[in-house]
Amino acid sequence: MSKVFKVFIVTILKLVFVLNCFSQNLIQNPEFDEYEVYYDNNRNIVYHPQNWLYNIDSKSHPLYFSTDRFLNQEIRDKFHPDGKLIYQGDTINYIGLPILPNSGIFYSKLSVSLFESENYNLLIDIRPLGSCNCLTDLIVYFYESISDSIEIAELVLEIPESLSFKNVFNNWITLETEYIASGKEKYLIIGTKDSNKYIKCINSNSSKYDCRRRYDNGLANYRINYGIDNVSLYKIDKLKSIMDSLKINDSFILENIYFKFEKAKLNENSYPILLKLFEYLESSKTVKIEIQGHTDNVGSKEFNDTLSFNRAKTVGNYLVENGISENRICFAGYGYEKPISSNDNEAGRQLNRRVEIKLLEK
């Protein structure tokens, strides 16, 4: 087998793997339906959701709710709020998360690490358990390593403004957020041990989180436990969503395109987004686009006009070389004629150095 053919095969396999991740939930045992039963060192029976661990150093999960666990009289009386299970559709397996006054966490390793600069959608179903007297948003984390507690990102999944206190207390609701990965994320942590973060959240908008049911005015008497179910993490094709929403003559900035300084040569970090643009055009045969280059105002007008055109053409050449018809692509270089920010500072100039895609035909 020739070296070129081997490289081709590896490239194709990588592409298939990446595309498959768009439809794959990267959370293992996302509905907590898979669990194991065993006895701990004290001969207590333990029901443990597979792939999930509790408070970093503990395998057993005291707030795992399932039918089998519920039927165990001792466990039911100890841990199940109101001595009952809260159904989620046809399933009855979920995890309880203590929020306040005591805060806990649980976590799982992702099925694959996240890809750098890719967009992901995280969705988690919640419902208050027991005698909660207020609400709060849900805090989660991405970690690279559990043992070293290396935090990559903190995310807040907000309760929608449109949902009332009663809506949330009587139904399972879905919280969601989008996230751009750094490429180091390997674990998802649900919850935080820092109870002050929840208290700050509640105090920031008392009407939204409806504290009227609190028993007194002391902060220590906030009481919240959430049931957690249906945890989903999917890669999303942001570029496709943007392109599909465009009207004729609309344009958008093609993010994550990088060139060598004062050159039209692409940096290697530009290829992931170019691959997505190619895939979109390959699947949308009637779409025609104009690729527009823009610069800041450093240097002469002639230099910037030429540089912006050449950079636009470089992007177009990548698409053509990979099989997109030349008839579907044209180029324009506007130099510094169309700034979107001030050229008086570096932050503004950086925004002005950009590539835009204009939709000509759908």
Question: What do you see in this structure?
Answer:
With 362 residues, this protein is of the alpha+beta class. The chain folds into 2 domains: 24-236, Sandwich (Jelly Rolls); 238-361, 2-Layer Sandwich (60s Ribosomal Protein L30, Chain: A), CATH 3.30.1330. The protein contains 9 helices and 16 strands. The chain has helices at 3-20, 67-71, 73-79, 165-170, 195-204, 238-245, 271-283, 301-321, 346-352; strands at residues 35-39, 45-49, 53-54, 64-65, 94-100, 106-109, 119-128, 138-145, 150-157, 173-180, 187-190, 224-236, 251-253, 288-294, 329-333, 354-361. Strands 3-6-11-8-9 form a 5-stranded antiparallel beta sheet, with no helix packed on it. A 5-stranded antiparallel beta sheet has the order 4-5-12-7-10. 25% of the residues are buried. Mean pLDDT is 83; it is low at 3-19.
What does the main sheet amount to? Answer: 5 strands, antiparallel
Total of helices: 9
Strand content is 25-35%
Q: What's the shape?
A: elongated
Strand order of the largest sheet: 3-6-11-8-9
**Fraction of residues in H or I helices:** 25-40%
Question: Which segments are poorly predicted (pLDDT under 50) over 5 or more consecutive residues?
Answer: 3-19
SSE order? HEEEEHHEEEEEHEEHEHEHEHEHE
Radius of gyration: 26 Å
Q: Can you say what the CATH homologous superfamily of the largest domain is?
A: Galactose-binding domain-like
| Domains (count) | 2
Query: Which class of the largest domain in CATH terms?
Result: Mainly Beta
